[in-house]
Write a structure and sequence with these properties.
heterodimer; A: 450 residues; alpha/beta; D-Maltodextrin-Binding Protein, domain 2; 2 domains; 5-stranded mixed β-sheet; B: 297 residues; mainly alpha; MetI-like fold; 15 helices
């Protein structure tokens, strides 16, 4: 890490904390002692620069060194797998997409935090995103109920709705609360190709599966009936799921660019940041781009809202968080070093510094602090308001296979290769087969009329 | 006599270290796929557990709906891209070989695409295919047509991917054929000209037959590489929309790495190897039949 930058950042942080008032004063940084250098496998996602700056501050404050292996998303899983399958992991902390955690928890590749330090506990107010960082091996489920603490989230990615505040105000429109509002705003503001009314991902695979999930959850649908209780009856071909898919397709066809079937995260962010989309559904981690003068043509013009709902229902908010975990196959000394960093990173002071540097903190008191009132942190209210609706999906060993099925069938429905009912019926059949092969108690709903 | 025997024996035994390396590094990994393909493999922190389950993997193979599309797409991709590359590469080589000046410069410019990393090519072409501001749709707009959804429309996506592959790999064909054209026997060409052969007769009756071995090598190499195409397609479309650009290599990546199905992934790998070998064998057989007919005429 560059010394000059770290010094300047630490000084700036100290000034900020002096002015921050009681919240910061009550929760200083932790004194974690001296530890050997640790290595973190981290992805080069939009929130990385914030994390990098927080690491700079850690090094400056503690004198401990942290080496970051910054890797594109596509290479993360294999690097993590290779690390835990080797005799000694080159990484002391692995950043795992919550979807991948089951493989690592179930494979006993990770060290429960209590086995490193019995006294370790997450500070009050740390968001756990439906307990994605706990593992109950007996139930094969992520829950603190009988489960062990396996990690914590460095970034709690959830969906929010981004909208052009300036355009909505000019047109006398209120921020959307329902998908019908989104549709109405889209009709009023769209003027393609210069301005699209609404964008979200439609690319095959994880992108469409993840970005459609808020529609599914919001319509009251689900993929599986009650996996937490061992009931893997497939419910993806329910009328609610069809309603969710039809609404998603309707919005994409009427409001998004014509190439919806291949629109990925980079495209969504680019359309919003270049001022060519009035509304967009994307993860909160994208926020740092929109107020960055180097990357955005709409600085100060975008605001966030809780993901819209179907009329008369609660919104659906899909969690897509990451989990920091410590591999089993590193020395006890380095495991303690990893935990020391974690203890520091989860303090109120570090979380605040992380947020100020563009990261998405995971302590609820950071969102409730004076930061939230500042214009540059105007996203915080929507983020915190969303937490009560945020839900995990695919929290079982077959999650990756189920996602592959949904990622294809939803995409085929979006591009018109098959009807929404046929896509969901096909997916239900294929997902049921996956669970059957896994020896789960499964079944499926009656097919939707095609 | 004795020296000859010793020389032969030495030559024979001196090959063994190389052969051993070849067996360990090439053959063994392929053979290892066989037991993998017959098993379900689970890797955990306590060790790797193999369960013998050939029927399970076979059922997965036979019931894999995406695999059928991937096989068809791959065959279409290989045939189309290699055919176009062969034609373009041949005429580019012929044209540049006939240039009185600037051949070295032209050759250098020609081979630039194969020097670029696939990631750069994928990013560059993704921008050029962009629906709103891409170069292609700007050109289409100039001639008064509606923009084309190059990567997002199932009717165009595979063709778009083929276009990128042709741009990337035609220089490879060009290089092989250019080198061969430069070594063609001048007396034969001269005799053709003296006999009053037209340009087309020169190409079809003299140059093409003389280039036969080079054409075969270029086509074979290109077909093998085209079967394994992955990086550009992954960057451009990730196999979508739908399954329109799903190639075998992409599907295998999904099964093996994203879904962590090692046993089924191994069975899929063996199937892909079989498809490649069968296709190349059919191609070779067809070429030999054509050659036999030609010789018989």
């Amino acid at each position: 890490m560059k010394f000059q930058f770290a010094t300047a950042f630490a000084a700036a942080s100290a000034l900020a904390f002096a002015a921050a008032g009681p919240a910061a004063a009550q929760a200083p940084f932790a004194d974690v002692g001296k530890h050997p250098e640790i290595s973190i496998l981290i992805n080069s996602s939009p929130w990385f620069s914030g994390f990098e700056k927080a690491v700079d501050l850690y090094e400056k404050q503690t004198g401990n060194k942290v080496k970051l292996d910054v890797t594109p998303y596509g290479g993360m899983l294999e690097k993590a797998r290779n690390a835990v399958r080797a005799a000694n992991s080159p990484y002391d902390i692995l950043n795992l997409d919550a979807l991948w955690t089951i493989e690592f928890y179930e494979g006993s590749f990770l060290k429960p935090f209590a086995e490193i330090d019995q006294g370790f506990a997450l500070p009050a107010g740390v968001l756990t995103f439906e307990d994605s960082n706990y593992w109950n091996a007996q139930r094969r489920w992520r829950t603190r109920d009988g489960g062990q603490l396996m990690g914590y989230s460095p970034n709690g990615n959830i969906h929010v709705l981004y909208y052009r505040d300036d355009l909505l105000k000019q047109a006398g429109l209120q921020p959307p609360k329902t998908w019908d509002d989104v549709s109405a705003i889209c009709q009023k503001l769209k003027n393609p190709p210069g301005m699209y009314g609404f964008v979200t991902r439609g690319e095959k695979g994880n992108p469409i599966r993840y970005d459609w999930t808020p529609f599914l959850q919001g319509a009251g649908g689900s993929i599986v009936k009650a996996p937490q209780d061992g009931d893997y009856t497939v419910t993806i071909n329910s009328p609610q799921a069809k309603q969710a898919l039809d609404k998603y397709i309707e919005l994409q066809k009427n409001c998004a660019p014509p190439n919806v079937g291949v629109i990925g995260q980079g495209d969504v962010i680019q359309l919003l940041a270049t001022g060519r989309a009035a509304q967009g559904l994307a993860v909160i981690a994208a926020w740092s781009t929109f107020d960055d003068r180097q990357k955005s043509a709409v600085v100060g013009k975008i605001n966030t809202a809780v993901v819209p709902a179907f009329a008369g229902r609660n919104p659906g908010v899909a969690i897509g968080n990451w989990v920091f975990a410590v591999p089993k196959n590193v020395s006890a000394e380095r495991q303690r070093g990893a935990l020391a960093f974690s203890r520091w990173f989860l303090t109120a002071g570090a979380q605040r510094a992380y947020a100020e540097a563009g990261g998405i903190p995971v302590r609820s008191d950071t969102f409730a602090s004076d930061l939230a009132a500042k214009p540059e942190f105007r996203w915080m209210k929507a983020y915190l308001d969303s937490q009560q609706f945020a839900r995990q999906e695919l929290g079982y060993a077959e999650g990756a296979q189920v996602e592959a099925v949904l990622g294809l069938r939803l995409n085929q429905a979006l591009i018109g290769e098959m009807s929404s009912a046929r896509a969901l019926n096909t997916a239900a059949r294929e997902i049921e087969e996956i669970f059957q092969r896994g020896g789960r108690r499964t079944g499926k709903l009656d097919a939707l009329p095609e | 006599m004795k020296d000859d025997f010793l020389n032969r024996t030495f030559r024979h035994w001196s090959m063994w270290p190389c052969l051993a390396f070849l067996l360990v590094l090439s053959v063994y990994p392929v053979l290892q796929l066989v037991p993998m393909a017959l098993s379900t493999i689970k890797i955990t922190g306590e060790g790797t557990f193999w369960t013998y389950s050939p029927r399970r993997n076979l059922d997965l193979l036979l019931g894999d709906a995406v695999l059928r599309d991937a096989v068809v797409n791959t065959l279409v991709f290989v045939v189309l891209s290699v055919a176009i590359e062969m034609v373009l590469g041949f005429f580019a080589a012929l044209f540049i070989a006939c240039m009185p000046r600037g051949r070295n410069f032209a050759r250098t410019v020609m081979i630039l695409p194969i020097l670029l990393p696939a990631v750069a090519i994928g990013s560059m072409w993704k921008l050029m295919f962009n629906y709103d501001f891409g170069l292609f749709n700007q050109m289409v707009g100039v001639i008064g047509l509606d923009p084309i959804n190059w990567l997002g429309d199932t009717r165009w996506a595979l063709l778009s991917v083929v276009i990128v592959d042709v741009w990337h790999w035609t220089p490879f064909v060009f290089l092989i054929l250019f080198a061969s054209i430069e070594t063609l026997p001048q007396d034969v060409l001269e005799a053709g000209r003296v006999d009053g052969a037209t340009a087309w007769q020169m190409i079809s009756l003299i140059i093409l037959p003389l280039l036969g071995p080079a054409l075969a090598v270029a086509a074979l190499f290109r077909a093998i590489v085209a079967f394994k195409a992955f990086d550009q397609v992954y960057l451009l479309t990730s196999g979508g929309p739908g399954t329109s650009t799903e190639l075998l290599s992409l599907h295998l990546n999904r099964v093996f790495f994203e879904q962590n199905q090692l046993g089924y992934g191994a069975m899929l790998s063996l199937t892909i190897i079989a498809v490649i070998v069968a296709t190349l064998a059919v191609g070779k057989w067809s070429a030999s039949q054509i050659e036999r007919k030609r010789m018989g005429q």
